[in-house]
Write a structure and sequence with these properties.
0% strand, single chain, 133 residues, mainly alpha
Amino acid sequence: MPISTIPRIDRPPPLATAPAAQAAQAAHTARTIIKSRARTFALIPALLENIEPKLSILTPRQMAARAAKLFREEIAAPRWIGFGGADGPVMNLKAAAWYARYLRAKEAAGKRRTPERRLSLQARMPYTNRPKS
């Protein structure tokens, strides 16, 4: 096929898509950093003490609420962003919130009624309250 008959695909100029690509890459990098820190908090929960004293001893629900409150306060506080960045505390707070949500999901998964658990609960029920089969 001659080159002149190949249909041309119209694309926006590269400079028009550069900001969108840069924003997407920044969001991906931030998510990767937050996930990595959340995994670190899962391995070493004592590191949560660097964010807020006694944060690691809270229940998962309290930890998520406290991390969300600290995140809102950190975002609302005026700060100077220069070389070295000031987003470290924000990412740590997001990671703490992700870790708390992970703990809540893990806790909820343990409380779900599986068929085996349902049968064991039925076995403990008095005969009068047992559902008829």
